[in-house]
Write a structure and sequence with these properties.
Elements lengths: L2 H17 L5 E5 L2 E7 L9 E3 L6 H30 L2 H8 L1 H33 L7 H15 L3 E5 L1 H4 L8 H12 L6 E5 L5 H7 L5 E3 L2 E3 L6 E7 L18 E3 L2 E7 L8 E6 L6 E3 L3 E4 L10 E5 L9 H15 L4 E4 L6 H15 L3 E2 L1 H12 L8 H7 L15 H17 L4 H10 L2
Parallel strand pairs: 4-5, 4-14, 14-15, 15-16
Antiparallel strand pairs: 1-2, 2-3, 6-8, 6-13, 7-12, 8-11, 9-10, 9-13, 10-11
Helix pairs in contact: 5-14, 7-13, 11-13
Length: 443
């Protein structure tokens, strides 16, 4: 082997050793083609077996093809690496798809929020509409109406003498007419209490209404419910025929904490005697002299409209005195809603000054009933006027066909009084809240 061949072989050894693979090399020396086959072991020093053969044309083509394939294999390996490398962006593409997922997450709560916001008010509105008053039963509405009416107008109480009681009216009285009109025109169930007692003067009426003091002598209330005679003195030393003709608003009275009823005990020389009978048995009670007697009306008729009609049986000195007695009832009962009915006896000459002073003091709360009956009483109750009525109207004198005697009215007269009273109470607004309740809960 020539020097050149040795050098060439060394070089190939190094190359092949560095690459670590088997290769076939063709060398030429001095123009003679030689084929050298080199077998390399990557773990040991390669041994070289050299065979000199003159290549044929076929072998040359085979060698050329082998070199071309070897070259192709060398070139192909990097392409495989390149392909492997270019597959990595698929991961990147997958990563870039994440924002689409984020957008979906963002969109979903927006849709949910819109649905919740839209649904809540609609549901609330439907519920409110369902619970409105029209869904209430007739019984429920009637109960609410009774409650509202009771708060607006608990009742009406009428204080007076025989003209309030209805003496001579054949069962008719102005309180009964007033009650009937309220039932017909407004609503039934509003109580109208008739606390008229015949023969009573003003201070006895005031005593029953709790505006005039009553005091008893010293006595002992027995343990059992036995009547005990006592003597009751009125304020200012006025005599008393207490309970002789009625006890409306009076009983049961309270004496020294014990409740009982008072009944009349007639003494011709002294009208102040009566009987006291306790309602329930208990301990014996000693009552000192000058102990006050409290009527039942002190605890009754709260919130009621009070109608007061007194004076026919006297015991007032003049118009100012009667006005002060009316005012005393108003103050004692703490009244804000009341009507005062003027006397129905007399004419403009005898009663004119009293009527004017009462009207000036009490205003629209006062009804000059005498002139009202003369002016329009017959028309109110459907009676035809008589030829002499012009005189009654001129003089302010109540017509005889509206009366049962010189003092008392008949059923037509009392009916007309009740109608006039109803009109005045309506004008004063005492029925306004009742009308509002009827409009809200009525049929």
């Amino acid at each position: 082997m020539c020097r050149k061949d040795k050098l060439t072989m060394r070089a190939w050894r190094r190359i092949i050793a560095g690459v670590g693979m088997t290769a076939c090399l063709l060398t030429a020396c001095n123009g003679n083609a030689k084929a050298s086959v080199i077998v390399l072991d990557t773990t040991t020093e390669p041994s070289i077996t050299q065979t000199t053969v003159k290549p044929s044309e076929t072998e040359k083509n085979t060698q050329t093809t082998t070199e071309t394939e070897s070259a192709t294999e060398v070139v192909t390996e990097p392409e495989s690496i390149a392909e492997t490398t270019t597959e990595e962006p698929s991961t990147t593409e997958t990563a870039t798809e994440e924002p689409s997922t984020t957008e979906a997450v963002t969109t979903q709560p927006e849709t949910t929020t819109e649905e919740v916001t839209t649904t809540q008010p609609e549901t609330t509105t439907e519920e409110v509409t369902t619970t409105q008053a029209p869904t209430m039963s007739a019984e429920e509405k009637a109960a609410l109406l009774r409650q509202a009416v009771s708060q607006a107008l608990p009742g009406i109480v009428c204080w007076g003498d025989s003209l309030t009681y209805g003496y001579g009216g054949n069962g008719e009285s102005y309180p009964s007419t007033l009650k009937r009109l309220i039932d017909e025109r407004l609503v039934d169930g509003i109580p109208v209490v008739n606390n008229g007692v015949c023969v009573e003067p003003t201070y006895t009426i005031m005593a029953r209404a709790g505006a005039w003091e009553m005091r008893t002598n010293q006595f002992i209330i027995p343990a059992q419910c036995y009547p005990t005679e006592i003597h009751i003195d009125f304020e200012n030393g006025m005599y008393s025929n207490l309970a002789a003709f009625g006890d409306a608003g009076l009983n049961p009275v309270t004496i020294n904490g014990v409740k009982g009823n008072i009944t009349s005990s007639y003494h011709s020389e002294d009208y102040g005697y009566c009987y006291f009978t306790r309602l329930e048995p208990g301990d014996e009670v000693f009552v000192e002299g000058d102990t006050q007697v409290y009527p039942a009306s002190k605890e009754l008729y709260g919130g009621y409209v009070n109608v007061i009609f007194m004076g026919e049986n006297g015991h007032y000195e003049n118009a100012e005195d009667l006005i002060s007695q009316y005012q005393r009832i108003i103050d004692a009962r703490g009244l804000t809603r009341y009507v005062i009915i003027g006397l129905t006896t007399g004419d403009n000459t005898s009663r004119g000054e009293l009527s004017r002073k009462m009207a000036a003091y009490f205003g629209n709360n006062y009804i000059d009933m005498r002139t009202e009956l003369a002016n329009r009483g017959p028309e109110l109750v459907g009676l035809e006027r008589q030829s002499g009525d012009w005189y009654n109207v001129q003089e302010g004198l109540v017509m005889g066909y509206l009366k049962s005697d010189e003092i008392h009215l008949n059923e037509y007269g009392y009916r007309a009084v009740g109608m006039i009273l109803y009109e005045r109470m309506e004008a004063l607004g005492y029925f306004d809240e009742v009308k509002n309740a009827i409009a809200q809960y009525g049929n």
